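Exercise: predict the fold of this chain.
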Amino acid sequence: MIKCNRAYFFTLLLCLTWLLMPISSFAEEIKEGLNIPSHVLDISKENTFPNSTEDQEIIEPSKLTKELIEDVGIPIENPELIKILNESSIKPSPIAIGYRGMVYLGRWPINYQSAESNINWEYQHINKNEMNNVGGEKAQEMSYYQQEEKEINGALTSKISNPEQIKTMMLLKASENTKLPLSYQAVIGHNTKLTNSYNIPMEKHGILDAYAPAVNEKGQVTFGEVYIELKGSNKTIQIKNVTKQGIGAWIPVQDYLSFSFKVK
């Protein structure tokens, strides 16, 4: 009877501990559980080439720009367009009663809507290490060693207007969806190595292949002609002649490698 009570008390204590766990701790666990396969490793500390993530700079709308785009029926997410609106100095006169005008800013990619973000963990082969233990008297161990610098480049999968602006929007959306460090260029530096070892039995030949992963991002871009409409002392944004176009892109994952080891 005493053993049963103790077991019940211990179980109750565990349940209470879990329920009282801080929300931030639980969120961190979710963040870390990104379904990254066990054969894919983070090499950010070991990579001899310091990759830059400047492509992911986010431009925040100013107070005035935020007020303007909130009243538009189509979400304006293009960072370059937001930058132009932030820098706009068009200020109607407060005494311009009855004044009307339209300022044409051009045809822009307005936003990008993601349909899917899929990861190819073996997007590009970047290294091969081999060890021959045929004729050896005992098992040998081998580790990953990057023999030469490799550059992995991403790109859009088809032609489209304003490709650089669209690449930026797709990069931001894919980064948000995958929580991975993404860039259209990733480099694995020469002499990058890991301490993880792979066992090669006697009379066998070991091969360790390394691959750079990339995200295959697919979705739809909305285009439109952007106008600033002036009515007296008021200023609003109008978007006309809206069209949509499907687009895809390959975006490399920085500082991650996928490994495949086999013995023959």
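Check your answer against the key: Residues 39-263 form one domain.
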